[in-house]
Amino acid sequence: MDTELKSMNPDPSKTDPVSRDDGSNSKDDRPLLKSDSNRNSSTTGESIEDLEKKFAAYVRNDVYGPMGRGELPMVEKVLLGIAVVTLVPIRFVLALIILVVYYIICRLCTLFSAPNRDEEEDQEDFAHMGGWRREVIVWCGRFLSRMLLFVVGFYWISVSYRDIDLPDQNKSSSQNEGKDQSEEPERLGAIISNHVSYLDILYHMSASFPSFVAKRSVAKLPLVGLISKCLGCVYVQRESKSSDFKGVSGIVTERVKEAHENSSAPMMMLFPEGTTTNGDFLLPFKTGAFLATAPVRPVILRYPYKRFSPAWDSISGALHVFYLFCQFINHMEAIWLPVYYPSQEEKDDPKLYASNVRRLMAREGNLTMSDIGLAEKRIYHTALNGNISLPSVLHQKDD
């Protein structure tokens, strides 16, 4: 499922993140990795080593090397051979069974229900369905998502909840205290997470079963299509340059506002970076997740590894799944930060809101901020595939 948000906000922010004036942590002063404004003339003829320095956020640092095609040591080849005849078949069958079982559950629960449709924006979902059927879909989805992670080697997931003091949050607290004591505090609008792998989606499904942003083609996929509708995914046409960008952004904003105002509405889960990294970096945030000016819950995901990195950066999907299935144990860490309540200044400026949340996540997750994005990722991938001149990709970047 593609959750990248580029189509929601086609013009990436070119401003440097603005830090909240808390003056409490020197990590906010770490240098950014700058993209080269003269890339059109300088990229031609550059070595892979030079590109790896420039596009460090997408470089694989595990034993499998760039694109998972590096020369493996003999020990790793032996371990892969053992896994191919033992782990891979078992895991493949179990994963397929879990997927089919959940599809059947979703099919039965939606059998006599009409989906929520938005014909104008070509959106359709079952996330607004209430009653016991919705409860079955949610709880089975959370359980089976965690089982799927278990099957592929994530036997333990380290989850921590950090209680930290956020600047300007005292104002929001005092405002909440000024309300009637019987009223609940201001509700969450969306969950915000860094994006490292498609595995991020399975974790968030198991943790809170939110709605995601997905490519429109996902809705038509066998098995996964119906599941995505039960999640309440917002579908986008990524490569299209039609006027429906504003429509999609508007749908996401409406869904975030709905979750903020209605406790029974599905929660939105957004990856504001717009693409995956190797897990050590945090890219600029798109503003689509922050236009509703609702509070957000930041989550930081990390994948510690010794041999194979679960990050989906410069490796093909099929090869990534194969290597993932071959690992005897995989590791994941989830860090949940407190709900972030925007100040009035941030509500008036979504870019400021996005960059402040980004700085907070970079500081708490010990992540390096980079100002490169999806266009640079395509350049790096094209270079790895042997086309060092990169003319077509560079023209896409200019457009």
UniProtKB/TrEMBL annotation:
Signal peptide: none annotated. Residues 1-47 are annotated as: Disordered. SMART domains: PlsC. The chain crosses the membrane at residues 78-105, 136-157. Pathway: Lipid metabolism. GO terms for molecular function: lysophosphatidylethanolamine acyltransferase activity; O-acyltransferase activity. It comes from the Eukaryota. Residues 13-37 have a biased composition (Basic and acidic residues). Residues 189-304 form the Phospholipid/glycerol acyltransferase domain. One of its GO terms (cellular component) is membrane. One of its GO terms (biological process) is phospholipid biosynthetic process. The keyword Zinc does not apply. It is found in: Membrane. Keywords: Acyltransferase, Lipid biosynthesis, Lipid metabolism, Membrane, Phospholipid biosynthesis, Phospholipid metabolism, Transferase, Transmembrane, Transmembrane helix. InterPro entries: LPCAT1-like (IPR045252), Plipid/glycerol_acylTrfase (IPR002123). Belongs to the 1-acyl-sn-glycerol-3-phosphate acyltransferase family. This is Phospholipid/glycerol acyltransferase domain-containing protein.
